[in-house]
């Protein structure tokens, strides 16, 4: 089958790899209909993780079930399903408590937790930027879709990762109706956090970035765009909140945060959040931070040590939630919002491409080329 293969930093190819297949009785095999490129793929694409050359990308996957193992009871051939990027078992200590983002069964390293398709440090699972995907524990992991699956495909595919992840950021921050919320990052994840804050009834949503195309998308759903190449975002938020700071804040950038001129500082957004959020406020951090960064700007950052303004964070009595999102905690409810026409996360989609378009698309999405806000790969499309 054809798949997107990582060859080395900023070097990918689309080539034949061994077909995905049923390996265990609890597996299902999915023919991919849509699979997205994510900001998390870019950390790997840029060589800023230990992702091994030769592996395939793709953790935002949706498709049609074409085969089920003989231990699968619920999911049937022909079902249209969306797969959480987390691969979880459902029966380990962490899964049982709802932390499917920290599954112990699917992570081969006993010192770690959590697994995902085509992801650095999350097990050796193949990615879905391919024609087919093997899904372990299919009954547990696959979320089945209704008759509107094909019509709303570009909305439903966001349930694999970014919509639940943005929602998780607002959950960890503690967003409730009437809150003011500041979100750093207007990439796909930040925009989903803005949509989630809107769904929860936030009174004021401010989104900080410097790319006009992404900020425009935030404005389209009623958020206030804050261009940090033009204004100091902390001062802006304080001015909008009677000098108190926002009730809640979301980190949707991650360890490759930089100022608008490109100088990297992995602590930049977290420290700006500590300054922008009020005393006793909550912060949800879903942007990825890692304990090792081969391309870090300095030695401390290379070991994941970042200079957090902990004193101010402590003084303000803020809460801070971190980590990968437990997609299964939210995907069913968010699916039903989409089905009812009350959430349309596909408004951020800019490109729909074939597998062969991936090389060009990765470059443009990585360069944050104007107009490349979210890329959907559709293996069924003829290459152009
Ligand atoms: N926790 C999870 O489960 C989870 C899931 C998906 C993605 N992620 C992570 O979320 C982060 C965002 O993902 P994405 O797909 O939106 O990525 P993206 O790279 O497309 O978007 C990041 C945005 O942040 C902006 N940015 C950079 N520095 C900034 C700063 N100092 N202030 C404000 N904005 C700044 C960039 O201009 C860009 O628009 C990534 O780190 C990704 O790995 C985490
Ligand atoms: Zn993702
Ligand atoms: Zn588990």
From TrEMBL:
<dbReference type="GO" id="GO:0018467">
    <property type="term" value="F:formaldehyde dehydrogenase (NAD+) activity"/>
</dbReference>
<keyword id="KW-0520">NAD</keyword>
<protein>
    <submittedName>
        <fullName>Glutathione-independent formaldehyde dehydrogenase</fullName>
        <ecNumber>1.2.1.46</ecNumber>
    </submittedName>
</protein>
<feature type="domain" description="Alcohol dehydrogenase-like N-terminal">
    <location>
        <begin position="25"/>
        <end position="137"/>
    </location>
</feature>
<dbReference type="InterPro" id="IPR013154">
    <property type="entry name" value="ADH-like_N"/>
</dbReference>
<dbReference type="InterPro" id="IPR013149">
    <property type="entry name" value="ADH-like_C"/>
</dbReference>
<keyword id="KW-0862">Zinc</keyword>
<comment type="similarity">
    <text>Belongs to the zinc-containing alcohol dehydrogenase family.</text>
</comment>
<keyword id="KW-0560">Oxidoreductase</keyword>
<feature type="domain" description="Alcohol dehydrogenase-like C-terminal">
    <location>
        <begin position="188"/>
        <end position="257"/>
    </location>
</feature>
<dbReference type="InterPro" id="IPR011032">
    <property type="entry name" value="GroES-like_sf"/>
</dbReference>
<dbReference type="InterPro" id="IPR002328">
    <property type="entry name" value="ADH_Zn_CS"/>
</dbReference>
<dbReference type="Pfam" id="PF00107">
    <property type="entry name" value="ADH_zinc_N"/>
</dbReference>
<dbReference type="GO" id="GO:0008270">
    <property type="term" value="F:zinc ion binding"/>
</dbReference>
<dbReference type="Pfam" id="PF08240">
    <property type="entry name" value="ADH_N"/>
</dbReference>
<dbReference type="InterPro" id="IPR036291">
    <property type="entry name" value="NAD(P)-bd_dom_sf"/>
</dbReference>
<keyword id="KW-0479">Metal-binding</keyword>
